[in-house]
Amino acid sequence: MKIKLFLTFLVLTAPVAADAVVFSAEVTDHYRVSVYLDTEGELVNAIEGRFTFPPDLLSLSEFRDGNSIVPLWVEKSDGRFSGVIPGGFRGERGLLFSIDFSPRGDGTASVSLDELQALRNDGAGTPLAVTSLPLQFSVSRDDAPAGHESTDTTPPEPFTITYATSSAVFNGDPFIVFLTADKGSGVAYYRVCEGVFAPCTVSASPHRLTRGGWQVVRVVAYDHAGNHRTAYRYPPMTPLFDASLAGAGILLVLGLWIFFARRRLGRYSRSRSRSR
To answer: Is the pTM of this model over 0.85?
Structure first.
């Protein structure tokens, strides 16, 4: 069984084999390549690879993962991509990502996928065969975009922050895990803030906590259009803290009872004195 990756440009430029990766193209304000996954009936939970293009003819403008079937990206930089699909995906046309290019020269450009791997969702990560087919299409500097204004005004989806520790991760130091998706332009990056007044840093999940986890942690997810969504994690209560809080509550209630009892006794004593 072979897995097929479809790269589409929307206007077919050359005949392709029916059982291989399909490239097509449309020239708008960008040259856009969309990568699709056909699992051929298999349940796939991970895929990785590399895309190449001639840098003298094309310039990479943007990597888009909005509406992707891959919710967790391990890598998506320098032409390499690697992602995990929890629970797996089975289908004929699952969108992995799209790539926007801008023309830099005149000629025939070839975009291809290499070093591809796909893993079956069988508990063992069994490798599956993957096929692809490069695309060749004409490039002209006259098609260079005059500018692109994003129409995405929707922030990333709401998400939660999970606190965890593991001897196999960060040498046992506490860390947090978080993940969201963006159906528009895709998630661009995260900023993590440890503490109310602490500076924020660009990070990714999992994020190693540098202050032990006993402070408010704020994670802000940004999409490629600049929209953002914020999630908070508040420090948990330890049993000692819970006992201290319970003790303080009991003392507060007892103190208030004594206070009002003494006031009531005082009013009663003054009333008896006046009645005499």
So the answer is: no
